[in-house]
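Fold this sequence, please.
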Amino acid sequence: MEKTAVVLFSGGIDSTTTLAIAQQDGYTCCTVSFDYEQRHRYELQAARILAKYMGVDRHVIIPFSLRSVGGSSLIDDIAVPKGRDESEMGMDIPNTYVPARNTIFLSFALGLAEVVGAFDIFIGANAVDYSGYPDCRPAYLKAFEQLADLATKAGVEDQGRFKIQAPLIYMSKAEIIQTGVDLGVDFSLTHSCYDPAEDGGACGDCDSCRLRRKGFEEAGVVDPTRYADNINF
């Protein structure tokens, strides 16, 4: 029997490895990305390329604006934090946190899952190298899973039980990268930077870039990231 899953897909390291895991587990995957007028919209280009490269049957990009909400450096005129070490990253929830973003993303994914007949939704949430985002915690994902069963026709009619699958939840970035390498992921196609140059070159200094670079170093894998022209390490 064919298994279908919806995969939240940004085109970054975590979501791409999550997609590879879902495919390895035998799921036919529908990927969903979001154009919410984020500062780093270049990630959508990476998502398109990767979805095609990885043989995804259906890739959906959902456009909407979170700029009218604001409150985050990713969708507002607020500077993205730069140059922070891990101890600083762990001190508080950074301004790159987008209010209710994963709740909004998962809601769209849940609607899509009902339409395509999927009960498995994969998300690359991580509770280790996650920058303190509250909507990446296991308790949150479990709560949304319960909501999904209560709030959908498929759940109420007992057609099945929704499962929010977060296979990376307890992995370090290095472990995620090694898992991706083992599954044949081409990380040179991925994009992680929160504040990229116009051509997509990574800034190398935001929290996401720093965690990404550290992950490659600890995994002993050559960093394939394309950095902005003025970046040297």
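Residues 3-219 form a domain with the Rossmann fold fold (CATH 3.40.50.620). The longest strand covers residues 27-35.
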